[in-house]
Design brief:
This protein folds into two domains: about 270 residues, Aldolase class I (TIM Barrel); about 100 residues, no CATH class. With about 400 residues, the chain is α/β, with parallel strands linked by helices. Strand 3, helix 3 and strand 4 form a beta-alpha-beta unit. The longest helix has 17 residues. It is elongated and about 85 Å long. Helix 2 crosses helix 3, helix 7 runs parallel beside helix 8 and helix 11 crosses helix 12. It is built from 15 helices and ten strands. Bound molecules: 3-methyl-2-oxobutanoic acid and zinc ion (ZN). The site of zinc ion has 5 residues, from loops. The site of 3-methyl-2-oxobutanoic acid (KIV) has 8 residues, from strand 5 and strand 6.
């Protein structure tokens, strides 16, 4: 694999599905997994098999149907978790076990009531045991964002020796600033013996709205995998949004970092996940929100009608949106009204447009958004209608 290729690890069905009240059944998970596979993600984290019989079944069934992606199951550094994950993944064409343990001072002290040395021992044991089931073992150092870099490097070194193929560096609490997260990845690249034998992975949460920025800083500094979810769904404020990191790398080719994602599928899969989980996507959501390619102010509309790139950095077709939308409101100008009227069959002269525009503003002041039916009504109710109809 080229050194410029960033692997996309989708965790919509694991970290994403941890959103309260948004449980998916196995059938819904299978539909989403099939679409993720077509989308071109490299790894599908299908669930946490030991957590419930339903999750075990989902991971097992997903393993049977996925054709291209690696299927992954999450575990703690607990022998039974790993054994159960190994069983759930047995039908996968390529399987990965994702095991790990908390490494920050607070996790070691309060969650495990343990010591740094004991945590390294448990981590090594977990990776070695996972290796008896699958070749591909990813290790997560939970709360790596708040873990001292020197200690984190020691953990990474030990698990690479035990056979870990991927090192996940989660900013579990979404606390890091982008330059800090980037520096952490750089530090590990430069200070972990054996790092060339493993891929560093970014797993960022969005508590401060920095998940996407942190993941991008991570890959700029040498990580080659991003863990993300469709629409950025996940615990609390969510995870890194898949569609955002993919489009950032695509729209900034000078970074020389590629993914294998079929970007034209992004909008469709966003809708699928939102509908299946019953989680509404905010209209101003980057890339896939209802307003991501909608223009409503007169100045912007005029610019976009003359040349789309005036106010758009992405061609909507590249993410599966048919076209930019010119939304008519009381802030719209004549150019937008003429454009929308033409789309439904009215070619207006300047004089006709002047009269209709005045009526349009009266109407738009009373209604938030003017649709095609309203435009018909406004034109047909105008004095110049006869002239238009006969032309
Ligand atoms: O956020 C996190 O630390 C996680 C790990 C379990 C990978 O989701
Ligand atoms: Zn997470």
């Amino acid at each position: 694999m080229s050194d410029n290729r960033v692997q996309i690890f989708d965790t919509t069905l694991r970290d994403g599905e941890q959103v309260p009240g948004c449980k998916l059944n196995t059938e819904q998970k299978l539909i989403i997994a099939e679409q993720l596979d077509k989308l071109g993600v490299d790894i599908i984290e299908a669930g946490f098999p030991v957590s419930s019989p339903g999750d075990f079944k989902s991971v097992e069934e997903i393993s049977k149907i996925v054709k291209n992606a690696t299927v992954c199951g999450l575990t703690r550094s607990v022998e039974n978790d790993i054994k159960v994950a190994g069983e759930a993944l047995k039908y996968a064409k390529t399987a990965r076990i994702h095991t790990g343990i908390g490494t920050s001072e607070s996790h070691i002290k309060f969650k495990f009531k343990s010591t740094q040395e004991d945590i390294i021992e448990r981590a090594v044991k977990a990776v070695s045991y996972a290796k008896t089931f699958v070749e591909d073992v990813e290790f997560y150092a939970e709360d790596a964002g708040r873990t001292d870099n020197g200690y984190l490097a020691r953990v990474c070194e030990a698990v690479i020796k035990a056979g870990a193929t991927v090192l996940n560096i989660p900013d579990t609490t979404g606390y890091c600033l982008p330059h800090e997260y980037g520096a952490k990845i750089k530090y590990l690249k430069e200070n972990v013996t054996g790092i060339d034998r493993a891929i560093l992975s970014c797993h960022c949460h969005n508590d401060l709205g920095l998940a996407t920025a942190n993941s991008i800083e991570g890959v700029i500094n040498g990580a080659r995998q991003i863990e993300c979810t469709i629409n950025g769904i996940g615990e609390r404020a969510g995870n890194t949004a898949l569609e955002e990191v993919v489009m950032i790398l695509k729209q900034h080719p000078y970074l020389n970092l590629d993914t294998g994602i079929q970007t034209e599928m992004l909008y469709g899969i966003s809708q699928l996940v939102s509908d299946s989980m019953g989680i509404y996507t905010q209209p101003n959501k980057a890339i896939v929100g209802a307003n991501a390619f909608a223009h409503s102010s007169g100045i912007h509309q005029d610019g976009v009608i003359k040349n789309r790139e005036t106010y758009e950095i992405i061609d909507p077709k590249d993410v599966g949106v048919t076209e930019s939308a010119i939304v008519l409101t009381a802030r719209s100008g004549r150019a937008a009204l003429a454009y929308r009227a033409k789309n439904i069959g009215y070619e207006l002269t300047k004089l006709q447009l002047d009269e209709i525009y005045t009526n349009f503003l009266d109407f738009a002041d009373k209604k938030k958004e003017v649709d095609d039916n309203d435009i018909h009504q406004i034109i047909e109710g105008s004095k110049v209608y006869k002239e238009i109809a006969s032309s």
